Amino acid sequence: MSAFFVTATGTDIGKTFVTAGLIRHLRAQGRAVAALKPLVSGFDAASAMGSDPAVLLDALGEAATPDAIARLSPWRFKAPLSPDMAAAREGRAIDFDALVAFCRDAVAARDGTLFIEGVGGVMVPLDDTHTVLDWAKALQLPLILVAGSYLGTLSHTLTALDVIARANLKVAAVVVNESAQGGVPLEETVASLRRFTAVPIAALPRAPAEAAFAELARLLTDETGRG
Fold this sequence. Notes:
43% of the residues lie in helices and 15% in strands. By secondary structure, it is α/β, with parallel strands linked by helices. It has one domain: P-loop containing nucleotide triphosphate hydrolases (Rossmann fold, 3-Layer(aba) Sandwich). Strands 2-5-1-6-7-8 form a six-stranded parallel β-sheet, sandwiched between helices. Strands 3-4 form a two-stranded parallel ribbon. Strand 6 (143-147), helix 7 and strand 7 form a beta-alpha-beta unit. The protein is globular and about 45 Å long.
């Protein structure tokens, strides 16, 4: 295992939940692990302890101090909107080249496994010309694609896999994170997806046992070993 880019089929699907679970699993095994969420919208400094960066820092065993959050997530915006819109609300713009350079530096300096968590879904705009997919293309890391089990996820997931394949990027695993609502059984969602893709798929129930994250970590190790 080395470095992975964590993305999703949409927003509020569970990227941070999945990333934090993987971090805890690897740390429990005594493995070196680090994480970044370079860009976050919907961030309110007054309630920072409940933010995605704070969740990742807790999984890493670090206190969510202002300095630690700034190190993990240098680009923070208050509005819960797509990054381009959230930045515009503040009269700012995301420097795409600086974002990519920040991530590349972290990849080069990693010790063990590094997870770089994206923002929103894989096609969310970052600025006037770049999306999360462009960010992933610039980094050329294997992807972890997080999906839900809600009604409609099959189309969303297969569409995401299609645009990722067209970009010649590798998906190390699809993680189907059981949705709180939707009424579609997790197992049936996974079985249907497996009929349409050869990408490894891991299922995470609402109350995942450690075994679920252990299986996901095994899939990632296997895919990395295959090159």
